[in-house]
Every structure is written in C-alpha cells, then in structure tokens.
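Lab notebook, design round three. We kept the backbone fixed and only want residue identities now. Task for the bench partner: fill in a sequence for the structure below.
Input structure tokens:
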C-alpha cells in the first residue's frame, strides 16, 4: 500500500488499521445469530523456537491468545478475544452472540455442555475420536473461518499482536459477512453453493456507512489507539 500511494510504511500501516476500525460494525448493531450456530476457539501466537528434546504443547496448552468464534451456518460470524475456554469466560460471549432459540454445534469441549443447557439445543462431535461430522452435526463452518484467520496470518500479515488483533478480526469478519451465496455446477454436474465476494462498490458503501465517530490516533510513542469520541475522522 505504501508503494502504491506514495507514503511511508508507518503511514500505510496506520491507514490499514483505520480501515479495519471501520470494519467493526459495533456490538449494538450486531443482531444475535440464530438457527444453527457453530462455536470453536482459535489460538493465536508464534511458533516456539526449536529446542532439542523439548516438546511444545499445542492449542489450549500454550500461552497463545485464545479467540472465540461463533458462526451462523450459511450466515454471519462473530469473534472475540477471551482469557480462557472456561464456562465463566465463554458463557457471557455465547449468550451475547446467539439467540436462546439457537441450536449450538460444538466440539467436545466440556464448557459447551454446560452452556448448551441454556439454549434450544446443543450437539457436538468428538474430534479426539477423529469424529468431525455426524450427519448435519459438525462445527466445520467455524473451523473454516478459523482456517481463514490462519491463512491471513501466515500469508498476509505474518504477525498479529494481541493489542491489535481485534482489528484484524474485524477485517476478516467483514470479508466473511460480505459474501454472496451462489449456486455453482461442479465438474460432475452436481450443484453446490459457493460464497463469492460482494462487488467492490457495495463493500465501500457498507464500509463508509460506519465511518461516523470512528478514528485512529497516533500515540506519543508512535503507536496507534482508538479514542472514544463522537467526532468523525
């Protein structure tokens, strides 16, 4: 971006985060997910340095930043940084993201067994037993979003700090929510639904409609922050 528009890399970096700030629709404008809602966690962090004879834990056994992901099947996505995968930590977020009438789909995380009692239904698959789908019971859509997060980290951003991670989640969630389901015929002649991005002008309209009251400022140390203000950028 810096090369394209002729600015310094730091300026382009700030502009990128300003755009990601616009991609946050705000909690008040996000309706709860309904129907089938899939839940999963994603852990962000760098790969530990190799040490001979040392085996590093994966997932929840690490000190990486956990993220809760809730996806309405063939619908919108919600995500939030969490401190742990405990019932006390997950329950408020799940109740905020999903309607009580929703049917939850999760993996075997024991916390979801307790949380699922507060919703219309709850089904799970046992990944430890290599069970990833049982008919319509799966959380593969949530894992697909997690894969999108991982590809963005590995192939585009390379590093996403916990401090700025919410804005990166804004961008990837914005792209996910602004897709159009389209029927496509496969080589075998069968039809399937694929998701394609909305036209660019529609994306810009949606993005700029969120500009009021949003801004990114430079900190005294050269970083950035989002002040709470009613003024437009």
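Proposed sequence:
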């Amino acid at each position: 971006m810096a090369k394209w528009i002729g600015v310094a890399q730091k300026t382009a970096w700030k502009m990128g985060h300003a755009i990601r700030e616009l991609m946050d629709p705000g909690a008040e404008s996000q309706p709860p997910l309904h129907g089938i809602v899939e839940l999963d966690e994603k852990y962000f962090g760098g790969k530990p340095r190799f040490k001979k004879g040392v085996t590093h834990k994966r997932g929840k056994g690490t000190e990486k930043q956990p993220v809760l992901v809730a996806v309405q099947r063939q619908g919108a996505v919600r995500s939030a940084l969490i401190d742990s995968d405990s019932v006390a930590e997950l329950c408020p977020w799940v109740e905020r993201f999903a309607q009580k009438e929703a049917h939850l789909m999760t993996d075997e995380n024991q916390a979801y067994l307790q949380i699922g009692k507060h919703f219309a239904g709850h089904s799970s698959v046992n990944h430890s037993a290599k069970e990833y789908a049982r008919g319509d019971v799966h959380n593969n859509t949530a894992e697909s979003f997690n894969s999108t997060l991982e590809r963005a980290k590995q192939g585009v951003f390379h590093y996403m700090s916990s401090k700025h991670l919410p804005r990166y989640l804004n961008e990837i969630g914005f792209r996910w929510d602004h897709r159009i389901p389209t029927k496509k015929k496969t080589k075998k002649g069968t039809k399937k639904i694929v998701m394609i991005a909305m036209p660019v002008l529609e994306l810009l309209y949606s993005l700029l409609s969120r500009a009021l009251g949003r801004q990114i400022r430079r900190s005294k140390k050269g970083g950035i922050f989002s002040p709470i203000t009613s003024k437009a950028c």
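Keep this in mind before ordering anything: The first helix runs from residue 2 to 5.
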